[in-house]
Amino acid sequence: QVSELVQFLLVKDQKKIPIKRADMLKNVIREYKNAYSEIVNRAGRTLQEVGGARQGNGRVLGGHTPRALTLFLLQVFGLQLVEIGIKPHTYILINNLPRAEGECLCRDKEKEKMGLLLVILSFIFMKGNSVKDSALWEFLHLLRVYPGKQHRVFGDVRKLVTEEFVRQKYLEATPIPLTDPPEFKYQWGPRAEKEISKKDVLNFVAKIQAKDPTFWASQYSEAEAKP
Amino acid sequence: ENREAMLNSKSNRLTEALEEANRLFDGVCRAREAALDAQFLVIASSIGKEKANELHSEMSAFDSTAFAEDLLTFMGINRTEVEEADDSEDVPGGFLPSDAWQTVGEEALKYFRRAPTFHYMMGSFKSEPPVPKQRIERQKKASRGKAERAMPAQLKKMEESHQEATEKEVERILRILQTHFEDDPNTPISFFDFVIDPNSFARTVENMFHVSFLIRDGLAKIKLDEDELPIIEPTKPSGEGEEDSRAGARNQVVISLDQKEWK
């Protein structure tokens, strides 16, 4: 019965759109209630055997739950269920560890999108955590990526960046007041905050530019400050 | 309108504009003018804030143009060949290979803690449900063995339907397995005969995926026969003995099958 809830989460996660707690409960509550005591027992046993596994700092499904569920996801799939919003309660699934080298089971499309995303996140971070859309597109222009032009790899890039990445909570777009036509500023979204660290991003930039991360003093101290 | 010009850190235009506004305000006696003045102040402060942001970036010495060039290098750009010129002059010449973004992507994956997505579930509705390959002697019993096909009449919401589809598939496969065994309890089924769809590699992978749920839930088990080939059989329903039936070794098995092997 636990597997049904897990299945539900995995299917929901396919599109990387956050999962609402209400949906989780609506879909699996009956199976879940029956299995609850068993889950708790099993989780308790496992906990003893393993000697306590690392648990995510996000709350999951409210008070009386799923330390069991969290534990199950972690132990069986190596996944963490993390809360990214409170009104309404919203969750995402992330990996407990970054993927080891050569382990990728994903398709090329996914890989390429993640590449573009990393580049965008790097640009935003290095520019002080917030950039205007015009500045972002000006930068992507240098990489032969244009908002008005169909891209050989990404297709409709404008849609990918302003809709898909935003919907998946990798990016956050906020309108800038009193701009006409309306302009937006872009920042890291809550999924980005959970799935990648500023330190990682700085290391990426450093690698690309063959410099030491400390070269960029203020970004370096900001990256080190994050827990 | 001159936002960009005002943003230029070397420009004093913002200051000049503010000073002029001050001068003008002395002559204001009507409400409309005062409102304009207020509006101007809001815009001015917004520009001021942006300028402050820009300053911060400059101090950190991040050169986005250099970053872009280094990225292109990382992606494997060939600068000796010059492509047809784009309109803009600041696009550097050079030939970008088709796997440019894959190269970045490979690197990116090392940093993201992204949960893997199970894509093959998406294929459940596309073609007919799989027909597990049967032994020749069993063909007469085949019609009895086929469970009802999954009937996805409407797709209300894609996500829900996919979950149901997976559950239905798993159940359906279990029923097929059980029916085979009712007919002939002593002849085990070769695992590969069971999962391989001779017409579709994707289907085969999906079958293996669905069978893995049965195994994990203890509804079926895989053993090795005398030839060391895997065979699959349903487990007997055990009531409360669930813990006991799982006392058998829980192993993790990775089966890899590529298209060549499948062929």
Unreliable runs of chain B, pLDDT <50, ≥5 residues?
A: 120-157, 239-249
Number of strands of chain A: 6
Which band does the percent of strand residues of chain A land in? 5-15%
Instruction: Output the structural class of chain B.
Output: mainly alpha
Approximate strand percentage of chain B: under 5%
User: Roughly how much helix do the residues of chain A carry, as a percent range?
Assistant: 40-55%
Question: Can you tell me the overall shape of chain B?
Answer: elongated
Biggest sheet of chain B, strands in spatial order?
Answer: 1-3-2
**Lateral arrangement of strands in the main beta sheet of chain A:** 1-3-2
The CATH class label of the largest domain in chain A is: Mainly Alpha
Q: How many strands, what sense, and barrel or not for the largest sheet of chain A?
A: 3 strands, antiparallel
Name given to the CATH homologous superfamily of the largest domain in chain A: MAGE homology domain, winged helix WH2 motif
Largest sheet of chain B: 3 strands, antiparallel
Query: Oligomeric status of the shown chains?
Result: heterodimer
Second CATH tier, the architecture of the largest domain in chain A: Orthogonal Bundle
Pfam families (chain A): MAGE
InterPro entries (chain A): MAGE, MAGE_WH1, MAGE_WH2, MHD_dom
Domain MAGE (chain A): 1-223
Protein name (chain A): NSE3 protein
Provide a quick synopsis of the model.
The complex is a heterodimer of chains A (227) and B (263). Chain A is an alpha+beta fold and 227 residues long.
Describe what you observe in this structure.
The complex is a heterodimer of chains A (227) and B (263). By secondary structure, chain A is α+β, with helices and mostly antiparallel strands. Chain A is 52% helix and 13% strand. In chain A, strand 5 and strand 6 form a beta hairpin. Chain B has 263 residues and is mainly alpha-helical. Among the domains of chain B are: 1-58; 188-234, no CATH class. Chain B has 11 helices and 3 strands. Chain B has a 3-stranded antiparallel β-sheet with strand order 1-3-2. In chain B, helix 2 runs antiparallel to helix 3. The interface between A and B is large, with 72 and 57 residues. Chain A: InterPro entries: MAGE, MAGE_WH1, MAGE_WH2, MHD_dom. Chain A: It comes from Callaeas wilsoni. Chain A: Residues 1-223 form the MAGE domain.
